[in-house]
């Protein structure tokens, strides 16, 4: 068996074409969706991610405002900036690029962003709403993963989803979203004994450990769907994931590639949340 590729780049393009039309309609009503992106310091990876988000906004007609703050920025200064943006009517979404310098408490910052502008879906109010199945901004990477699985009409209900990773931004929420879709969910993490015993039972396996090629062919059940969230840069400059793609594609029924899988979908769902915010609070 050679797995079918779930192409996140293509799915993103399709969704972004639809979003372009939605934004055009909003603009005709005098509403230009606006996203503010705050970056603190000069971390090169963060700068690349921020540029990618800005470019994606511009492509579909969302106004993006980049706010660059110095590495030495204090928590109070960052909070003051967020307060300003919370009050600014032309801004529908506020994103603070993580990680932040060590003098700033990330959780304190996340909680300062208005839940109505929290397009990353990290605010405890949005997380609570997601857990209780209410309308909210869903976190972008987990939402993108669900959309990818659904795009191939893969059954979720009653299936066993195994999530490797339990971070607040990927692992925990992605498991919750699959639970909301009536899957049976198992979480694995760095303290899990015998990881393979769990992953090899998965109908849908989500690899979000941040460990290059942790998931080998023998970790995967034949016919499974394998979603690779990991991003690792190799010495030759190329990107790879948490999954040994060449091995696993011979066993899985569906697989996401790196690059061109979950990454583009994450940005697409950020655009989606920004448009939803403009519609919800301004249209
Ligand atoms: P974190 O480092 O915050 O979390 C990693 C999780 O994996 C932790 O829960 C950790 O367990 C678990 N883990 C680590 N090693 C193992 C192991 N050997 N076996 C089982 N579990 C393990 O990472 P993130 O969730 O932020 O990101 C994960 C990966 O996804 C990274 O490569 C990141 O770059 C990528 N990423 C990609 C995105 C995209 O858009 N494609 C978006 C966000 C992240 P424990 O809790 O016990 O420490």
Tally the structural domains. 2
Question: CATH first level of the largest domain: which class?
Answer: Alpha Beta
Mean pLDDT score: 97
Shape estimate: globular
> What is the C-alpha radius of gyration, as a whole number of Å?
19 Å
Descriptive overview:
It is a single chain. The chain is α/β, with parallel strands linked by helices and 283 residues long. The protein has two domains: 30-115, Rossmann fold, CATH 3.40.50; 139-262, NAD(P)-binding Rossmann-like Domain (Rossmann fold). The chain has helices spanning 8-28, 44-60, 75-87, 106-112, 124-131, 140-151, 171-180, 195-199, 245-248, 262-282; strands at residues 4-5, 34-40, 63-69, 93-96, 160-164, 184-188, 204-207, 225-228, 232-233, 239-240, 254-255. The strands form three sheets. It has a six-stranded parallel beta sheet with strand order 1-11-8-7-5-6. A three-stranded parallel beta sheet has the order 3-2-4, sandwiched between helices. The chain is globular, with a radius of gyration of 19 Å. The mean pLDDT is 97. NADPH dihydro-nicotinamide-adenine-dinucleotide phosphate (NDP) binds at residues 141, 164-167, 169-171, 188-192, 195, 208-211, 214, 229-231, 262-263, 266.
